[in-house]
């Protein structure tokens, strides 16, 4: 899915695979149709983390920015568009209608708080649908208040979100943190902060030397000491050291001290009990014989 941040207009494409050649080919079609963007924002999965996509961004001269790993909220625009597309497809399937017509109607529906549809913001005019409409409504009409309306809308969303949200303290270079595990049963991994790579993302290095990019929400500051990889590696021993540290022969005396034998305690003997056993009262009316 590809979405335009300014107009909220999105395209849905079917991929045969997730390889770089397939995804780059789809993006080239969109760029030829709508123009080259200044910035492309994506997640960290393949193929966006490949050398092929990096070469593609340099060739088409756009900045490629990635979201925080394991934090879909940082890429909320696309996540919201995916929910909208799934909802349209599910409703079309239940109603046995054409999903493309449902997508066309959505693109021509005015967005809440913006007083214009994605098609109007993207192309400067409404698109013709199966709904009856006047000819004057299909004439070009450039929207000039989109940026101001979107800013007011985001400020409203921010005020509602900040009612219960609190800012986390920023981490400095060299701070020791624990990384949240994403599988149940695993412990938080100790790491050291290398640098701040985004607004709320940090590059951290674990004790085994692995480097990760994590959101601030997945890092907890700790006062534990950090053990570097160099300290974990044991020093190798040279041939000269092995020769000097060879074990010396030990003389073994086979003579046994007589005093040790005299002070040894004898082993206890196992014997049966000699106490007198009385016959139970409930057996007094019976004749009992013991068979040996």
TrEMBL record:
GO annotation terms (biological process): DNA integration
Domain annotation Integrase catalytic: ranges: 1-140
Family matches, as PROSITE patterns: INTEGRASE
Taxonomic superkingdom: Eukaryota
GO terms assigned for molecular function: nucleic acid binding
UniProt cross-references to PANTHER family, sorted A to Z: CCHC-TYPE DOMAIN-CONTAINING PROTEIN, PROTEIN CBG26694
Protein name: Integrase catalytic domain-containing protein
UniProt source species: Mytilus galloprovincialis (Mediterranean mussel)
Lineage of the organism: Eukaryota, Metazoa, Spiralia, Lophotrochozoa, Mollusca
């Amino acid at each position: 899915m590809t979405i335009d941040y300014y107009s909220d207009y999105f395209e849905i494409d079917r991929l045969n695979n997730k390889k770089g050649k397939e995804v780059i080919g789809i993006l080239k079609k969109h760029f030829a149709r709508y123009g080259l963007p200044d910035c492309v924002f994506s997640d960290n999965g393949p193929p966006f983390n490949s050398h092929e996509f990096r070469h593609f961004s340099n060739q088409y001269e756009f900045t490629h920015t990635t979201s925080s790993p394991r934090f879909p909220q940082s890429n909320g625009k696309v996540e919201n568009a995916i929910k909208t597309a799934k909802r349209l497809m599910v409703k079309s399937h239940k109603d046995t209608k054409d999903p493309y017509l449902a997508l066309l109607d959505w693109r021509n529906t005015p967005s809440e708080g913006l007083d214009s549809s994605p098609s109007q913001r993207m192309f400067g005019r409404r698109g013709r649908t199966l709904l009856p409409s006047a000819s004057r409504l299909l004439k070009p009409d450039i929207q000039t208040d989109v940026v101001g309306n979107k800013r007011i809308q985001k400020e409203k969303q921010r005020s509602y979100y900040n009612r219960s949200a609190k800012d986390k303290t920023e981490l400095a270079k060299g701070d020791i943190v624990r990384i949240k595990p994403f599988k149940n049963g695993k412990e938080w991994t100790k790491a050291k902060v290398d640098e701040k790579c985004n607004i709320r993302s940090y590059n951290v290095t674990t004790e085994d030397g692995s480097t990760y990019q994590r959101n601030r929400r997945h890092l907890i500051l700790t006062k534990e000491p950090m053990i570097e990889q160099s300290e974990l590696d044991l020093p190798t021993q040279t041939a000269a050291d092995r020769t000097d540290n060879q074990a010396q022969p030990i003389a073994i005396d086979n003579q046994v001290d007589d005093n040790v034998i005299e002070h040894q305690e004898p082993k206890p003997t196992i014997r049966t009990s000699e106490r007198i056993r009385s016959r139970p009262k409930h057996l007094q009316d019976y004749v009992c014989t013991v068979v040996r």
